[in-house]
Amino acid sequence: RPRVFSGIQPTADSFHLGNYLGAVRHWVALQDSHDAFYCVVDQHAITAGHDPKVLRQRSRLAAAQLLAVGLDPERCTLFVQSQVPEHAQLAWVLGCITGFGEASRMTQFKDKSARQGNERASIGLFTYPILQAADILLYQANAVPVGEDQRQHLELSRDLAQRFNKLFGRTFTVPAPHIVKDTAKITDLQDPTAKMSKSSSSPGGIVDLLDDPARSAKKIRSAVTDTGREVVFDAETKPGIANLLTIYSALSGRSIDDLVAAYDGRGYGDLKKDLGEVVRDFVGPIQERTRSHLADPAQLDKLLVAGAEKARQVAVETLGVVYDRVGFYRPV
Ligand code: AQP
């Protein structure tokens, strides 16, 4: 079976609808067709400042949410990044074949460092995509399900795999992005031209899976839309409505055309009200399941330790080949 790898940062208490619809939903779907490795990337989560106690709890919360939305440890390998030291070890090697200029072109670093102030942005934030490449290449992943915002980072992962293979001999599978176009960029409810984001959206712009369902429904009802009335899907001229239709379609399984026809002549208010209810009904059971996973931290930890052991078997093997190929010292 082809391999799939993806990761998510435990940088907030809750994942948001963008994380779920752009990426995690596909993780769930790929469990049966692929040999799937999914990772809570806590090492990525310290690149922009953090609180140690909160981070540890958020890693558990992230794992609990992933289980709640449908990851099944019997059908995939779920683990926490820092439990597998080979990620950081491989990142060092990959960093040594990455150009400074090449890394400097990563737009996510440019955006985030500009927001933080260039003097305060860490080297970890700068080398983030190299650690991400290590995450992926360590597992010889064929495909990486992510949102559109990760396309450039994935391109770097591909370049590094190819470069390493050329320099030192065929070692890595070159991974392909698995970006499902329809939901690849869920936008901010208050600024429908920007992506919904943990770090840059205002509270009104983001729908968290673990937020109070009534509050989420209210946020949907208050989403920014244009001044027209007609419900049509046009991401250029009506980005707010297009975003709501995208979310509605993905959560309900109804096609965009079907929704547009259903709201013909009814205006935005009805659409927002109904979508608010769809979101409310969707997050309710996820919250319940998340709570039940969190209620048994020993069981959760057991599962994550087992996941890390499984992941390490692959990681150790790949790193061994890498160390050998680059000529690291090995006593005879
Ligand atoms: N708005 C989005 N639409 C579609 N996919 C999205 N993803 C994130 N935002 C959207 C995808 O979610 C996965 C996990 O991403 P992450 O752990 O890197 O989370 P993130 O990028 O930290 O999430 P945010 O909200 O975008 O935070 P900031 O802005 O702080 O970086 C990835 O596959 C990502 O593509």
Textual characterization of the structure:
This protein has helices at residues 17-30, 52-69, 86-95, 100-104, 107-116, 123-138, 151-168, 213-221, 239-252, 256-262, 267-294, 297-326, and strands at residues 3-8, 35-40, 76-80, 143-145, 176-178. Helices cover 54% and strands 7% of the residues. The protein is built from twelve helices and five strands. The mean pLDDT is 96. The strands form two sheets. Strands 1-2-3 form a three-stranded parallel sheet. A two-stranded parallel sheet has the order 4-5. It is mainly alpha-helical. Residues 8-9, 11, 16, 18-19, 22-23, 146-147, 149-150, 184-186, 195-200 line the site of adenosine-5'-tetraphosphate (AQP).
Strand content: 5-15%
Counting DSSP H or I runs of 4 or more residues, the number of helices is 12
Largest sheet: 3 strands, parallel
Share of residues in helices: 40-55%
Distance between the termini: 36 Å
Order of helices and strands: EHEHEHHHHEHEHHHHH
Cα-atom Rg, whole angstroms?
21 Å
Uncertain stretches: none
Give the overall silhouette. globular
Hetero ligands: adenosine-5'-tetraphosphate
EC number: 6.1.1.2
Catalytic activity: tRNA(Trp) + L-tryptophan + ATP = L-tryptophyl-tRNA(Trp) + AMP + diphosphate + H(+)
Organism: Micromonospora nigra
Subcellular location: Cytoplasm
Descriptors:
about 325 residues; 3-stranded parallel beta sheet; two-stranded parallel sheet; 12 helices; globular; EC 6.1.1.2
Per-chain topology:
Blueprint: E1 3-8, H1 17-30, E2 35-40, H2 52-69, E3 76-80, H3 86-95, H4 100-104, H5 107-116, H6 123-138, E4 143-145, H7 151-168, E5 176-178, H8 213-221, H9 239-252, H10 256-262, H11 267-294, H12 297-326
Parallel strand pairs: 1-2, 2-3, 4-5
The structure holds adenosine-5'-tetraphosphate.
Subcellular location: Cytoplasm
Enzyme class: ligase
Motif ('KMSKS' region): 195-199
